[in-house]
Write a structure and sequence with these properties.
This protein has ten helices and three strands; from the N terminus they run E-H-H-E-H-H-H-E-H-H-H-H-H. It is mostly helical. Helix 8 packs antiparallel against helix 9. The longest helix has 34 residues.
Length: 311
């Protein structure tokens, strides 16, 4: 198989957490539990915003997009991870591996861009409230969402396609629990300097520029909030942004850390990826529902309307 191109592989081996076999059963339970709640939670947010007209605002439009991204991550990663954690086989079909590589890179980049768009939405809502409906019109929101999705897709197509062109010389064992572009690059038996450089440059808009835009937005937001005359007004404004700020810290923190200072060992990298791929999609709906009065009120309205129909 000397000089074989990666496109001719039939399957890959995912080592996953096999170096800690005692963790596999507990992790299986965690992944199954988190995946079920993620599907229910994010699906509920999407349905709720569709059913309640008061939630059909730019903020919840972008939240719907975030929920779709979380669902994509879970559907892409969880089934194969559950299969590998439960049984002795640790293989993944070639087409499944490539699908994971493309989709995971796409959703990861898109989420970085989308969080920056959501920060801009909060900036306009708090710093320019009188012009909010004029600036954040429906077609503008759609254009911003399309821009986030399309830039993530373009970067994913570039990075994953370049990676597939590398020769792997029969190497087919990935020291990870899913197929990720950086891990696939490690299988190559040729110089990968160009791929590594492309990956680093391609990540700049998403893990450096996007967080910087978020930082600028929230700097203006905090300044505007502190200028509000009433304590009640400041509390409401901070409450409006708190959910988004928690999600930003939870998502950008590990991403920036791994970009600027890659983990020294593979186990640390796996657990950081595990948190993003399994835990974060679950936390997003919990944070936005438990800390958001609008969502709670919408749930009450729907519950009351259902009770009214039954009676």
């Amino acid at each position: 198989m000397e000089g074989e191109n990666m496109s001719f592989a039939n399957a890959f081996v995912l080592l996953g957490f096999s170096d800690h076999p005692w963790l596999e059963v507990p992790l299986f339970g965690i992944v199954l539990f988190c995946s079920i709640l993620t599907l229910i939670g994010n699906g509920a947010i999407i349905l709720l915003t569709l059913m309640d007209s008061k939630l059909q605002t730019p903020m919840y439009f972008f939240l719907d997009n975030l929920s779709v991204l979380d669902l994509c991550v879970t559907i892409t990663i969880a089934p194969q991870l559950l299969f590998n954690l439960w049984g002795p086989k640790k293989t993944i079909a070639y087409w499944s591996c490539m699908t994971q590589a493309y989709l995971f890179h796409w959703t990861g980049c898109t989420e970085c861009a989308l969080l920056a768009v959501m920060a801009y939405d909060r900036y306009v809502a708090i710093c320019r409230p009188l012009q909010y409906t004029l600036i954040m019109r429906s077609h503008v929101c759609i254009q911003l969402a399309v821009a986030a999705w399309s830039t993530g897709l373009v970067n994913s197509l570039i990075q994953a396609t370049l990676t597939l062109q590398l020769h792997r010389c029969g190497h087919h064992t990935l020291n990870h629990f899913f197929c990720e572009v950086p891990e696939l690059i490690k299988l190559a038996c040729e110089d990968t300097t160009a791929n590594d450089l492309s990956l680093a440059v391609g990540a700049i808009p998403f893990v450096l520029v996007a967080p910087f835009l978020v930082l600028i937005s929230y700097t203006f937001i905090v300044r505007a909030i502190l200028k509000l005359p009433s304590a009640e007004g400041r509390r409401k404004a901070f409450g409006t942004c708190s959910s988004h700020m928690v999600v930003i810290i939870m998502y950008y923190g590990p991403s920036i850390y791994m970009y600027l200072q890659p983990p020294a060992n593979s186990t640390q990298a796996k657990f950081m990826s595990f948190c993003y791929a399994v835990i974060t999609p679950l936390l997003n709906p919990l944070i936005y529902t438990l800390r958001n009065k609008d969502v709670k009120q919408a749930l009450r309205r729907i519950h009351q309307s259902q009770r009214g129909l039954k009676s």
